[in-house]
Each structure stands twice: as structure tokens, then as C-alpha cells.
Amino acid sequence: MGREIDEAWIEEAVERYRRIETLHAEFDKAVKTVEVTVHSADGLVEVLVTADGTIRDVRIDGPLHNRTGEALSRSVREAVTAAAEAAAWARKKLHAETFGDYRSLQ
Fold first, then answer.
1. Which long-range contacts (CB under 8 A, 24 or more apart) does 91-100 make?
2. Whose CA, among 1, 64, 86, 87, lies 20 to 30 Å from 36?
3. How many angstroms separate the CA atoms of 89 and 36, rounded?
4. Three-state SS across 11-27?
5. Contact by Cβ (8 Å): 79, 38
6. What predicted TM-score, i.e. pTM, was given to this entire model?
7. In sequence order, which residues have a C-beta less than 8 Å from that of residue 41 and are 6 or more positions away?
8. Does residue 47 contact residue 83 with C-beta atoms inside 8 Å?
9. What digits encode the pLDDT tens for the residues 12-50?
């Protein structure tokens, strides 16, 4: 007993697959270009990070003469931690924007 092939369903599935590939490519490009800037709690350190977690720039703003190495290290850690959290937030937001309208096959 042979089975009928639903060519329309197959064509739709192939088109959905191609659309998903396109969306993945857009997402991969976006996470490398979307940037977020964060600061340490004391405002001394500023970090620019992309949504994929790449740190693009680190700036120290303000005088350092009254700060210890430990205080500067703490500010850098705070800013880098905030940058990692901001990158994760940006990825999640981009993912929702990119794939939000996608409906899975059922």
C-alpha cells in the first residue's frame, strides 16, 4: 500500500527551513554589531560590549590618584560583569525580535 506524498506540505517545509536559515544569518550578524555600553557602580569604568559578548572598548573616566589598585580592580570587575549581563540581555532581545513571529511546524 503506497503513501501519497503531500508536495504542498513538503514545499512549505522547505520554505520554512530556508526562512529559518535566513533568520539565523540575520541573528548571527546582529549579535556581532549591536553594542551596549555599561558602567561600574562608581562610574569610573565604562565598557562597550557587543551582544555576542565581545568587549570592544574599556575606558577609565576620572582621576585615579585617590584610588587603590584594589578599588580600580573592583570597578573593572563590576563593569565587566555588567557587560556580560548586558550582552546576554541584548542577545535575548535580538532573538525575540528575530524569531518572535516564527511559528514551529506542528
1. 91/31, 91/51, 91/52, 94/27, 94/30, 94/31, 94/34, 94/51, 95/27, 98/23, 98/26, 98/27, 98/30, 99/23, 99/27
2. 64
3. 10
4. HHHHHHHHHHHHHHHHH
5. yes
6. 0.78
7. 75, 78
8. yes
9. 889 988 998 999 999 999 999 999 999 999 999 999 999
